[in-house]
Amino acid sequence: MPVELIRTGIPGLDQVLKGGLRKNSTILITGAPGTGKTIIALQFIYYGAKDCNENGIFITTEENLEDIKQFAKNLGMDIPSMESKGRIFFVQKPLTTMKGGIASIKGMTDAIKKHNIKRVALDSLIFFEYLYPRFNGNKIEFRRQVLLFMHQMKKAGVTFLAVSERSVTDFDRLSYDMMDFVFEGFIVLSRIRKGSYFERVITVAKIRGQNHSLDVYPLTIGDDGLKVLYDQTPFSLVEKEESGFKQG
Ligand SMILES: Nc1ncnc2c1ncn2[C@@H]1O[C@H](COP(=O)(O)OP(=O)(O)OP(=O)(O)O)[C@@H](O)[C@H]1O
Ligand SMILES: [Mg+2]
Question: In this structure, are strands 5-6 and 26-31 parallel, antiparallel, or unpaired?
């Protein structure tokens, strides 16, 4: 069967992926705070429904859904209009009120069937970390639960995008986490210093079974959302290489 690719909802990223994401694959987006992870997850769900006819569920650990919707609105996404049409669903799992384990997530697979859901975004894996703290002798249980959830999503036939946090995202010194190997796709966001300001960048570290670009690309965030400038190489990296030559 030929591989079916779906559009990500992030302008420019499909070109980097040489066509888009494999339908029904599992993708992890990681990066330091403020690098654009939540925006990517929001666009994946919103434009997936709006432009690709794929209904979606957005699971968030944020306290306040209204804040997220306002945040999305400032980036050009009218979440309530898609919600009222039954095309996207926002599920809130505030960390402070999670007591019942993932039992409540079991209803997710039913909802997927009922609403013909094709995309699920989870922002972020902190959700599981809270339930099964990794640094409490519980690392294995944490992984097991993430894996279990991932497999449920796979079985349900959706394309699953999860967000995870990482403090250091220097591409040359990236420390890997077990979860990076478990997901089929792994995308890293970062900022590179360019004189007195930082340039936002993205790289696709892996997509299993797919031929994608390994380059580092600049990205911009503005009123119309997050875009990948796929036909440019980051200035900061070019400079780094040039100064390397001079020293050598
Ligand atoms: N309307 C906007 N216009 C321009 N830039 C924006 C806009 N909204 C957000 N940003 C930028 O996007 C960044 C936040 O992106 P996002 O919330 O997706 O990051 P994140 O990686 O999810 O961060 P965290 O790890 O803290 O959740 C902010 O640092 C801000 O600079
Ligand atoms: Mg975020």
Answer: unpaired
> Residue 103 has what pLDDT?
42
Q: Are 35 and 201 in contact (CB under 8 A)?
A: no
- Residue matched to tokens 């696709």: 204
CA 189, CA 226: separation in Å to the nearest integer?
12
Band of residue 5 on the pLDDT scale cut at 50, 70, 90: very high
Question: How many other C-beta atoms lie within 10 A of the C-beta of residue 103?
Answer: 8
Is the pLDDT at 101 greater than 80? The verdict is no
The residue ranking higher by pLDDT, 82 or 100, is 82
Q: Write out pLDDT tens, residues 46-85.
A: 999 999 999 999 999 887 899 999 999 999 999 999 999 9
pLDDT at position 7 over 80: yes
* Beta bridge pairs of residue 56: 88, 119
Pocket of ligand 1 (CB under 6 A): 31, 33-39, 74-75, 165, 221-223
Shortest-distance atom of ligand 1 to CA 71: 8
For residue 43, how far is its CA from the centre of ligand 1 (angstroms)? 13
For ligand 1, mutation pick of 61, 190, 221 (most atoms within 8 Å of CB) = 221
Question: What domains sit in the chain, N to C, each tagged with a CATH number?
Answer: 5-247 (3.40.50.300)
20, burial (CB in 10 Å: exposed 0-12, middle 13-18, buried 19+): buried
Q: How is residue 211 written in tokens?
A: 């031929």
Using CA of residue 170, residue 172, residue 176, residue 181, what is the dihedral sign?
positive
The DSSP line for 145-211 is: HHHHHHHHHHHTT-EEEEEEE-S---GGGPPP-HHHHHSSEEEEEEEEEETTEEEEEEEEEEETT--
